[in-house]
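To the wet lab folks,

You asked to see what we're planning to order before we commit. Fair enough. Below is the target structure as C-alpha cells, and below that is the sequence we designed to fit it. If anything looks off to you, flag it before the synthesis order goes out.
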C-alpha cells in the first residue's frame, strides 16, 4: 500500500523524527475503532446521538458516524462579559446543575448535568443560541485504540528489524525505527516525563516500576494534599475515571475490553532497558506519568481527558500520549490541547484504525480527533487553526508498508511508525503480542 502521508515515510529524515519525539511515544495503541458496550454507570454509558431531519445527525452533521457522549451532560463556555446572574438564570431555564468533580474552570468551561426536561441535543442548541455563550457541546466519548505484547528484544521488530519472523511472518530488514542506532546517541533521560492518558498503568510492573513518575510534592499514604492541587496522595498520577489516587491499569477480564491498554503503551514508550528482563522501551529511563481516563470499556470522556491534560501541564510533563480517537471535533478538547501547545508540551496522537470494516480511513476527508487537531478543522461550526504541538501517527507493518487498518492523510497525518505485532508489557507481569490478524497496538501511536 503506497503511503499517502506527507513525504515518504521510508526517508531517513522521517525515521529520525519518529526517533527523536514520536519514538518516545511510539507505544500509543492504534487499534480497531469499535465502540464496545460501556459500563452501565452515570459517568460512562453507551449513547448514540439521535438522528433527525432526514437522517442527519443534528450536532455532528455526519449520519455515517453518530456521536457518542455521556448522557445528560453538557459542557459550556461562557463569554467573558457574561454576568454570573445571567449565567445562573440561563442554567435554571435549561434545568442544568453544575458538576464540580473536575478542574476545568481555569479555561472557563463548565460541566452541567441536565434534569431531563431537555435532551442533550436540545440543551446544546439552546445554549449555542444564547449570546452569553461562546460554545456548548456534549461531553463526547473517545475510543481507545487496542494493543499487543510479548518479550525478548529479538521479537521487537519495530525497534530493530533484521527480517526476523514474528507471528510466523517474516519482515523486511531495517523496516524499523533504528532504535539501536539512536541508543548509541542516547537511551533517554529521567528528566523527560511522558504523560500517558489511557486505561492506567500497572505501575508496579517490574519492567515499568523503575521509570514510573513520582510526584515530588506529595508524600505517599499520609492522606494529605501536600502539593495543594486538590488531589490527595496523587503520587504516580490520578484516576480521572473514578476520581481517586490509584491510576492502576486493570487486568482485562472482558475479551472485548481494553484493560492493560495503558500498560502496553507505557512499556513500548519507556519499558526499562538493559535490566535483563522483559521488553525494552524506546526510552530506557524516561518517566511515565499515569493518567487514567478510561477503563476496560474502551471509553474516555472529554471531561476526563481534558482534566488529565491539565494535570500533565501543571506537573511538568514534556509529552502527552493519546491513543484514542473519536469523530467529533470538541472545542473544549481543542482548547485543552492548545493550552498544552502554549506550555510547550508535545501532544502525540494515534491517527486511528479505520471503521468497523477494519480498513483505514483518510483523515483528510473523514476527520478523527484529537489527531486532526494537527490541521485546520471546523469544531461546532467554528474554524480552528492547526496546533503545532500535535503529531498524528499512522501504523506500519514489518515490511515498511502502512497496515491495512491504519488511518492516513496527506495533510492530517505527519508520521508513521511500527504498529502491528508489537510486544510490550501487560498488568499480569507478562508480555504479550496481539496476533497479526488483529489490528491492535500500532507502534504508530504518538
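Sequence we intend to order:
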Amino acid at each position: 500500500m503506497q503511503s499517502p502521508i506527507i513525504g515518504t515515510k521510508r526517508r531517513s529524515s522521517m525515521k529520525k523524527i519518529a526517533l527523536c519525539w514520536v519514538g518516545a511515544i511510539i507505544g500509543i495503541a492504534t487499534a480497531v475503532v469499535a465502540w464496545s458496550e460501556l459500563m452501565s454507570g452515570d459517568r460512562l454509558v453507551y449513547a448514540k446521538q439521535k438522528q433527525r431531519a432526514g437522517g442527519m445527525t443534528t450536532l455532528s452533521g455526519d449520519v455515517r458516524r453518530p456521536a457518542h457522549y455521556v448522557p445528560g451532560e453538557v459542557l459550556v463556555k461562557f463569554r467573558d462579559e457574561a454576568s454570573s446572574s445571567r449565567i445562573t438564570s440561563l442554567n435554571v431555564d435549561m434545568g442544568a446543575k453544575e458538576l464540580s468533580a473536575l478542574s476545568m474552570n481555569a479555561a472557563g468551561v463548565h460541566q452541567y448535568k441536565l434534569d431531563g426536561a431537555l435532551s442533550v441535543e436540545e440543551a446544546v442548541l439552546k445554549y449555542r443560541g444564547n449570546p452569553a455563550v461562546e460554545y456548548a457541546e456534549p461531553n463526547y466519548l473517545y475510543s481507545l485504540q487496542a494493543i499487543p505484547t510479548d518479550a525478548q528484544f529479538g521479537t521487537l521488530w519495530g525497534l530493530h528489524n533484521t527480517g526476523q519472523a514474528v507471528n510466523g511472518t517474516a519482515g523486511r530488514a531495517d523496516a524499523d525505527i533504528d532504535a539501536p542506532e539512536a541508543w548509541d546517541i542516547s537511551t533517554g533521560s529521567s528528566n523527560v516525563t511522558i504523560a500517558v492518558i489511557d486505561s492506567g498503568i500497572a505501575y508496579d510492573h517490574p519492567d515499568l516500576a523503575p521509570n514510573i513518575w513520582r510526584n515530588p510534592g506529595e508524600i505517599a499514604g499520609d492522606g494529605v494534599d501536600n502539593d495543594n492541587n486538590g488531589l490527595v496522595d496523587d503520587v504516580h498520577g490520578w484516576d480521572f475515571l473514578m476520581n481517586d489516587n490509584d491510576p492502576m491499569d486493570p487486568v482485562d477480564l472482558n475479551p472485548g475490553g481494553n484493560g492493560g491498554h495503558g500498560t502496553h503503551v507505557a512499556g513500548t514508550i519507556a519499558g526499562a532497558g538493559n535490566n535483563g528482563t522483559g521488553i525494552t522501551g524506546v526510552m530506557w529511563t524516561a518517566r511515565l506519568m499515569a493518567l487514567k481516563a478510561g477503563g476496560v470499556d474502551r471509553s474516555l470522556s472529554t471531561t476526563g481527558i481534558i482534566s488529565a491534560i491539565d494535570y500533565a501541564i501543571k506537573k511538568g510533563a514534556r509529552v502527552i500520549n493519546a491513543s484514542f480517537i473519536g469523530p467529533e471535533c470538541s472545542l473544549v478538547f481543542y482548547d485543552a490541547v492548545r493550552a498544552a501547545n502554549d506550555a510547550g508540551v508535545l501532544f502525540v496522537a494515534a491517527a486511528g484504525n479505520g471503521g468497523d470494516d477494519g480498513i483505514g480511513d483518510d483523515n483528510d476527508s473523514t476527520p478523527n480527533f484529537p489527531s486532526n487537531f494537527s490541521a485546520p478543522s471546523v469544531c461546532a461550526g467554528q474554524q480552528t487553526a492547526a496546533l503545532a504541538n500535535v503529531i498524528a501517527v499512522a501504523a506500519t507493518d514489518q515490511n515498511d508498508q502502512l497496515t491495512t487498518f491504519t488511518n492516513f492523510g496527506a495533510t492530517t497525518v505527519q508520521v508513521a511508525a511500527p504498529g502491528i505485532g508489537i510486544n510490550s508489557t501487560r498488568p499480569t507481569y507478562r508480555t504479550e503480542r496481539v496476533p497479526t490478524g488483529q489490528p491492535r497496538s500500532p507502534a504508530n501511536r504518538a
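Structural context that might help your review: Confidence is low (pLDDT under 50) at residues 1-58, 147-152, 432-446. Helices lie at 12-20, 84-94, 120-128, 179-183, 261-270, 302-314, 331-342.

Thanks,
Computational group
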